Amino acid sequence: MALLQFKKKPDTPPAHGPLSPEVEAFLQGYSIEVMPRTAAKIEDFRALLPEGTRVYIAHIEGTPIEEMVATAKRLAAEGYPVMPHFPARIIKDEATLADWIARYQGEAGVDQALLLAGGVAEPHGAFHSSMQLLETGLFGKAGFKRLHVAGHPEGNRDIDPDGSDANVMDALRWKQKFAESSDAQMALATQFCFEAAPVIAWADRLKAEGIDLPIHIGVAGPAKLQTLIKFAVACGVGPSLKVLQKRAKDVTKLLLPFEPTEFLSELAAHKAAHPDFNIERVHFFPLGGIKTNATWAIENGGTAGTPARPADPA
Description:
The chain is α/β, with parallel strands linked by helices. It has a single domain, classed as Alpha-Beta Barrel (TIM Barrel), CATH 3.20.20.220. 38% of the residues lie in helices and 16% in strands. The chain is built from 12 helices and 10 strands. The chain has helices at residues 21-26, 36-39, 65-77, 94-108, 130-135, 138-141, 166-181, 196-208, 225-234, 241-248, 261-273, 290-299; strands at 31-34, 54-57, 82-87, 112-116, 146-151, 185-192, 215-220, 223-224, 257-258, 279-285. An 8-stranded parallel barrel has the order 1-2-3-4-5-6-7-10, surrounded by 4 helices. Strands 8-9 form a two-stranded antiparallel sheet. The chain is globular, with a radius of gyration of 19 Å. GO terms for molecular function: oxidoreductase activity. This is Methylenetetrahydrofolate reductase. It comes from Pseudoruegeria aquimaris. Keywords: Oxidoreductase. Residues 1-20 are annotated as: Disordered.
């Protein structure tokens, strides 16, 4: 893959060097998530993100597909590979799914997608899981080159109400088999969490069980502590929420922005010591704002559009 360079340097020069060479290496090829309403507030993404940065577009219930496609078209025109969400539970039927795929391809040249169940209690129609979307075969027929599916390092109570991970693991085994027969490159994109040790244990367990899909680990970007706690509770973040709760008890830190420094440093050090570790990329949720997150990533050495690592032919 050819090396992509910035079209335009960030407006704000880095205030300091990267946290460490390990973190700088770990951040290469990071991705970031936006919504149509947050993207609309950014005048020009080329002032914030390196060219080639993969940008996910979150599809929240109630967002018209026209707004999603318009955002994808705008980002693609500015030089970014776009990965829109396809939440199964808000897609009425196979005809609707085919229409969405055709719109994204025809208007924005999209050839990658994140498939997930979606945070809706009751399905709007025929689909309730990402596996059903894959089974339609529509993404393969459309020639999608990359398909991501959800990963849950801390489990998922919607899928496993008893607190186990039995159903989640069964779904991952199914997705692993699908990946082995698919022409698309596949990976797991995870929910954000705040504690490295359980994430490392989870990733190692998947590999030990023969699930070797590359993992793009979800990371909450810098934000006020209160903001992170609100989103973490709303998104069902598991035991690692205690990292935020512990910090909240220190009133001297309550108003300071929380940064993913410790979490990423521990993961990066583990990756440096174990190059075959299957977490391959960082995916940012810019909960404190896109500009804040993008600036932090660049200050710590993060670039995107870099040549793929051997383990993940992105």
